């Protein structure tokens, strides 16, 4: 009966990863080893147990499996299997090894550590049984029950559109916008997530793409490029969630964020020109404002100056007037050439033609500059 | 028992192997994600774990199922929502404009027996449904003007497509959960270029109108300032127009003959007759 245990254990594929239950590779390697020549039963006594106290059965267990491999796979003539095998009590050491192995097997597949961010979905022969909360969960041992751990806290992301390639979407006013966005999601319902969708990640990115297209197609280009981005994000998130609910996906959409929304590259110049135009208009208005300010201050200055003089004038009109007249005349006549003609009875004649001749080209110049 | 095993180890091995094999042949593990069609010598006899709407996990037919060993076998069919993706379709709107539409459907096998008889595998169902989805899409969207193609969800077009596709899908034991449009693009070439041109010209127009608006506002600002300055002058000078005339004349002479500090004025020669008001005292004719 003893070898049956070993056989079942082998059929379970525990050693499929070529590691013993304690992580050390079995000394025999894979199943391709040649059976050692020589008759059965002339085995060397098993090696001394090495390392920790736990490993008491290691070498003998491996050897035990070796022998079974040979017995079933190698097709050697079956011996009694008892010759020269050390015993404990009246049982062979293989028996105890098998017992130990099965115990460990049960231990490892009955208790499950579920981390705080995980849930363990338990299936019994494929049928959903229960979901383990964080902590140590117990299930029936392996061939009967199995546990799939699902991380429900992890935020996963799907990126749609990229900075290098244009993802053009049509807007409601029949313009195109190049858009790239990220969808963050996490698992809300581990059972649904495992059992309801064949391709959850693909589904999410496809639905995201579709929802974005749908929402953008109901907006104008300026909405998408401008201030209504937040509204678009919220609407896309709701739309994805609604659609995924219909598929019973067990997924919750945490966030949709538009990373970039630009006009298509080939019309970008025209868009930049609009920005330039806004700046031009701005500077035009600034110039006008500067002019207006200057003009007002000049007017106020002159008005104030006049008012001050006028106040003085009203105190003594005649004198002030004369004084101002003479002062002005002095300033002027001091700085200009003066000719006084003292011939009574002669009408003063000014040779205007002569005076203007040297400056004949003047009028033209004035015409040219008159536009400024 | 032990003695028997000791005496005939090979026999025991063989026997137990046969027993095990038979055991594994007579039960099958049905996962939550699968439905199975049990066939007896190739003829379908019953369904395990068939999809029912509103069922809950762990209450349906998943888990261990018994079958007759060696005679019955099980064909597994997916129970989950699956994806039917298709290539882009050219749709022509009623106003003769083209649009490339990329759609997908989600479906679920609800009648595995019917599906098994009609198509045998999910892949073949998809092969059969793909062209039908394409033609449904073209027909339904071809009834609409271009503007409403951009958001076909609003007018129930997608629902119509889903219902139409479902009618055919039912023959395969499949239910269409949802049909959605993933992408809607203008075909490259003339349609796309003309759209770009339109976008460009719209922006150019916008830029022009922004500049014009700026110029207009600047002009208004200047005019308002002029008016205000005039008002300030009038309010101040209007108190005594006669004196203002004199005061301003004095300023004007000075500016004319001496300049206002900005560049030299042209040299001036003044020829005065003794009758000049200024030279009244000069002649001593008092």
Could you characterize what this model shows?
The complex is a heterodimer of chains A (372) and B (286). With 372 residues, chain A is of the alpha+beta class. Chain A contains eleven helices and twelve strands. Chain A starts with a helix and ends with a helix. In chain B, strands 6, 7, 8 and 9 form a four-stranded antiparallel beta sheet that branches. In chain B, strands 3-2-5 form a three-stranded antiparallel beta sheet, with helices on one face. Chain B has eight helices and ten strands. Chain B has helices at residues 2-7, 9-26, 112-118, 122-141, 146-149, 157-169, 190-237, 241-258, and strands at 27-30, 34-40, 43-48, 63-66, 72-78, 82-85, 89-92, 98-109, 174-185, 269-272. The model of chain B has no long low-confidence stretch (mean pLDDT 84). The interface between A and B is large, with 104 and 97 residues.
Task: Give a quick summary of the entry.
Helices cover 46% and strands 18% of the residues of chain A.
